[in-house]
Amino acid sequence: MGVPNEVLSAALGLSESPAYTVAGSRDEEDLMRRRSVLAAGLVAPQLLAGVDDALAAVPAPTAEPVAFRAQMFRARSMFDAGRYTQVLDGLPAVLAGAHQAARPGSATGFGRLSTCYSLAVDVLTKIESYDQARVAADRATVYADLSGSVIAAAEAARQTAIVLRHQGRSRAAQKLVTNAAVSVEATGLATDAQRAAYAQMLCTTAYTAAQSGNRAEALTLIREAAAAARVLPAVAPQGRVFPVTPSSVDAYAVGVHWALGDSGAALDIGNRLVPQQFATVERQGRFHTDMARAWWQWGRPEQTAAALMDAARVSPAELRDRPAIRRIVADLRHKHQHVVGVRELVRLTAAH
Questions:
Q1: CA pair distance 144, 38, nearest whole angstrom
Q2: Most buried in the list 100, 133, 189, 233, measured by CB within 10 Å?
Q3: What distance in Å separates the CA atoms of residue 88 and residue 79, rounded to the nearest whole number?
Q4: CA 350 – CA 14 distance, rounded (Å)
Q5: How buried is residue 220: exposed, middle or buried, by Cβ count under 10 Å (0-12/13-18/19+)?
Q6: Residue of 94, 112, 115 lying closest to 102 (CA atoms)
Q7: What are the pLDDT digits (tens) for 221-231?
Q8: CA 338 – CA 93 distance, rounded (Å)
């Protein structure tokens, strides 16, 4: 972008400010450059390089099978706690351990391996690394099929659909996740785990339809998801693949209405929810950022900044590591720099 190294370093808070200024810093081109710098992700390149290497050739495992299960649990717990860079750092070892555990060829081993690749998709889509996420989603699908688990297959289909949607292939995403919903429904929905999976498939399909502008379909599907989740407990059991609750479906509805451009409806639903209804830091932070996006869409910078500050208090990584949210912060800085909280948001998103 033509920014000197020392200026970039100072802008990101990694060094003291240089003793000079950039000429013409008030013109539109420079403002756009600084917005781009602020919006750029700060995930360390070596972390992504390590994940790239693990996707290309799985490294040798460093833990015994029992230790691997603890390692996998720890990785999921870190994701739920909003510690995305730590998940990326440990991901190669988790994948290596999962492959070792799956070598006997058991359905359980393949299922765990699929789950690990699904976790990889979760964290890679957070930071918008969609090429790597697509590779991980494909692997999750292969091992889910080998496991024979409808639940694992549904999770892999959901992850793949999310990546496809971000790659501009909404029609393929819609078809994939709709087929997954049909497969889950064919189980008879006799258990809470199956009902939760079915509700999640409907939520994902609704959001995908909303992103494609299919308003009627999106609203119908999110209502069906709410009906399916009505019988589920308010708190999902620990370890469930799809920790769906009635409140989490309502949170999805916020995103559906935002995607349809109906920020008023999104905010109306969101204002009836409280963060404590969501069990993990990641979900609480995501709720706040979804509300921020709805406020931003409605043209309310003060409320947008307040919602982002709420997200930062719960999960700083939701601001720091998600490029989509960093772009909102950059726009706030460019257009509404005097709004309460904006300077603090800029500082938080620049922190490494």
A1: 38
A2: 133
A3: 9
A4: 9
A5: middle
A6: 112
A7: 999 999 999 99
A8: 45
The residue ranges of the chain whose pLDDT is under 70 are: 1-44, 63, 65-66, 351-352
Q: Is 4 exposed, middle or buried (0-12, 13-18, 19+ CB in 10 A)?
A: exposed
pTM of the entire predicted model: 0.84
Question: Tokens in use for 53?
Answer: 């290497």
C-alpha pair distances (Å), 254 with each of 119, 211, 265, 290, 307: 24, 13, 8, 7, 14
Give, for 213, the enclosing helix (H) or strand (E). Answer: none
Dihedral pair phi/psi, residue 19, rounded to 5°: -85, 10
Collect all residues with Cβ–Cβ distance below 8 Å to 12 and sequence separation of at least 6.
37, 42, 350, 352
Q: Is 24 helix (H, G, I), strand (E, B) or coil?
A: coil
Domain boundaries, the chain: 44-148
Q: Which two tokens stand for residue 227?
A: 């009906």
Q: What SS3 string covers 74-124?
A: HHHHHHHCCCHHHHHHHHHHHHHHHHHHHCCCCHHHHHHHHHHHHHHHHHH
Please identify which residue in the block is written with the tokens 């429904």: 185
